[in-house]
Amino acid sequence: MVGVSDGQTSGQASVTARTRVGRPLLSLALAAMMDEVHAHSGAVYLLADDASVLEMAVMAGLPRAFAAPWERVGVSAPIPVAEAVRERRLVWVGGEEDMARLYPRIAVVLPYPFALAAVPVATRTTQYGAVFVTWPGSHPPELSERERDHLTAACDRLAVRLERAVEDSVPLHSEPDLLAAPTVGGAAGTLGTVEAARMVARLPYGLCSLDLHGLVSFANTAAAELMGVPVNQLLGSTLWASVPWLNDPAYEDRYRAALLSQHTTSFVALRPPDDWLSFRLYPSTTGLSVRISRARAVAEMRRVGPRPGDAPSRLVTISQVLSLAGALTEAVSVQDVVQLVADEIAPAVGSQALVVLGSRAGRLHVLGHRGYEDPHLVERFDGLPLTEQTPGTHVLTSGVPAFFDSRQELERLYPARHATPDGFASWAYLPLIASGRPVGTCVLAYAEPHPFPADERAVLTSLGGLIAQALERAVLYDVKHQLAHGLQQALLPHSLPRLPGIDAAARYLPATRGMEIGGDFYDLVRGQGPAAAVIGDVQGHNVTAAGLMGQIRTAVRAYTTVGQAPEEVMRSTNRLLIDLGSDLFASCLYLRLDPERGRAVMARAGHPPPLLRRPDGRVRVLDLAGGPLLGIDGSAVYPTTEVDLAPGSVLVLYTDGLIESPGVDIEDALAALGRRLAEAGDRPLDELADELVRHSAATQERSDDVALLLLRARAEG
Q1: pLDDT tens, position by position, 51-81
Q2: What's the rounded Cα separation, in Å, for the pair 261 and 249?
Q3: Is the pTM of this model over 0.70?
Q4: What gap in Å lies between CA 237 and CA 217, rounded to an integer?
Q5: Which uninterrupted H or E stretch holds 91?
Q6: In sequence order, which residues have a C-beta less than 8 Å from that of residue 557 and are 6 or more positions away?
Q7: Closest of 257, 251, 253 to residue 292, by C-alpha
């Protein structure tokens, strides 16, 4: 490591840089910076060689485990140090509500009251990294000018020192974190004097001391007796590791909360079988002092959480939040998000009802609700302008959550609520902000008056951020789904024309994966002569495939209308596809129908063979001669085959999505389709179409679209 002193010329600085190798530059700068502004923890990040990643080089005041998720982060990450580098400015987070609103990912893992400042370390021409420092939750919500000036000047000085180190080719590395080393020794010796140790030993309650890592460095006899673990087993270990019944993340979380917030906190825990103990944690910048006593109130003996008046327990543990976050990433549609919030998030936070409101065109829209006996109480707010003075609109436009402990508090601020009682007694209104813009409001309602302490507000606000991100994705998915569905419906025939001597029925099922849009198509065409039927499949499941499908269908109709023969229709369509210059290919089956003469003429381009059910119920696969897929060879020819189409015969035209399924042989699937056709072929065509689609294994979980066209020859007269 290298250090450069202040107050020297550039030449002197270079000499110092070369002669003070080994001095921890980053650690000393961070320690001085924290001391100047009375911060209790901090860290220095350096940019990696490619300038796209920030790496933590040294941390002070807290164990590095507290910042483990952010030891190495991308410059584009939504966290304060990365933002400070991107925008070359000081970033201030005034407390837990600011953190939950601005950086929900951090608040999910560290939902404690603390303030944070992140400052870039940069010269006019070069970025080197960033520094963050934190203060206890008691810090004022605004950063003072003195603190701002000290931090900015200190980071500027550090940037100059780093610049000089680079000029002197001195490598910059990570440095040991600045934490007090744990002191492990006898119970009597760790307090300094024998008399002090005797005094502590005589106290009727337990005392122990934890270092910043949570390791026990002192424990008196009373503490050991209350916890049922000898002193020598406690020393050098963490309480939740050495005391089996304290091995719960909730108790470790109290230690983290006390250290990060520098606020006294507490919890009660059950020592089996029925002995309740109270733990009160007194933090400092060097560790924690813990007082242990028997819980006094009978009410406390029925609880495993903090007592009223002490720092409240979190309703949702970190593991629960991470589980909920994972579940939200799997929500696809808006209704999936609403259902997940109703099934998992609302019960986890003790809410009995919820409303999810979306924002569109300057109005609120009810996306979903649960728990209200009278749905009209909720739905009357659908379409409410954002200019209305309601809690739902206010939190959305301001971006600040609102918590109402009682009906009286809500009605005092929003008198109009007198006219719309919903039967609940307290509410949390969470703004749903994603990608920097409001997407809606989540309202959680409680049947009883419900206080919202600070850490619970932080957790709820963080959950609001996660819900917002899931809702933003879901809204986008729903819009894409509606677009895809509308485009597909526009490209397929709205209805089948009535043909002389032919009954027809069709079905189309989009793939259940992806965008639910593809290139499968079918059509019936009445030309100058006999009618025609066509079915085809453009490869791909995207807008390009759907657009090409529309062009092919239009071309087939045009060529049929002008009276081209089946083989000419296929050749013309093939040449068109090649002329369009598309990289996609298409399969196609074209039929010229002549029911009066009881026949059909078919041409095939790489398409699955149709099935024919004769009037006597026998089914055969029409293995027709054909040519290659459309769009491959401009000189390809497509021979035709004439088949009998006696009255009562049924032709089944389909795309490969009907028979192709993972793990199922196509020949077996085709044989099964033939058996179902033989058994149900006498039913009305609509019933037969539903039957064939419903019982196909490939249609249950579809990786491909399915198109089905049924044609039945009937006797006229």
Answers
A1: 888 999 999 988 888 887 788 888 888 889 9
A2: 18
A3: no
A4: 8
A5: strand 91-93
A6: 523, 525
A7: 251
